[in-house]
Design brief:
It is built from six helices and no strands. The protein has a single domain, classed as Up-down Bundle (Ferritin). Bound molecules: fe (ii) ion (2 copies).
């Protein structure tokens, strides 16, 4: 922990670490949801869906790494037990039950929209309080916005294919 680095944070550091750990839990949930989705997804456009899910999963894992780095920098500890992911997450883990591309990707859209809300709120909380965290969160939010659009575009392509039948 950097003593001065922690001292310059203009908000409650324990609360900040808790919020970052909550986002960390969301990222692991999203990572696993997309990873497992890529294994089980079926039907038309399966290969495109697998590619998107795999790419997004890698991004979510990278986000988890960024959050963990910042949590440690602030003197905190990233969640050490996967059991805590479900309890701490803001965005519910959406267990796949329908393995069609449409259902799996729709769950992805929901997850991304929740993530966009989470990071928008975190940005508002850290604005003018913690420039380091704020700056770290911007590219994460940009990725989530990109992910939502990727998934929605896939659903649109799928709808066109289905209508063309
Ligand atoms: Fe993410
Ligand atoms: Fe995402």
């Amino acid at each position: 922990m950097g003593t001065k680095g922690r001292a310059i944070v203009g908000m409650d550091v324990v609360e900040l670490i808790n919020l970052l750990n909550k986002a960390f839990a969301d990222e692991w949930s999203a990572y696993y949801q997309y990873w497992v989705g890529a294994q089980i997804v079926k039907g038309p456009m399966r290969e495109v869906a697998v590619a998107e899910l795999t790419e997004h999963a890698a991004d979510e894992l990278r986000h988890a790494q960024m959050l963990s780095d910042r949590i440690i920098q602030l003197g905190g500890t990233p969640l050490t037990d996967p059991v805590e992911w479900g309890k701490m997450a803001t965005c519910a883990y959406l267990k796949p039950t329908d393995f069609s591309v449409r259902a799996i990707i729709k769950q992805g859209v929901n997850g991304e929209q929740c993530a966009i809300d989470v990071y928008t709120r975190l940005l508002a909380k850290t604005k003018d309080k913690d420039p380091i965290t704020y700056q770290m969160l911007i590219p994460i939010l940009a990725d989530e916005v990109d992910h939502e659009e990727d998934f929605e575009a896939l659903l649109e392509d799928l709808a066109e294919i289905e209508m063309g039948r």
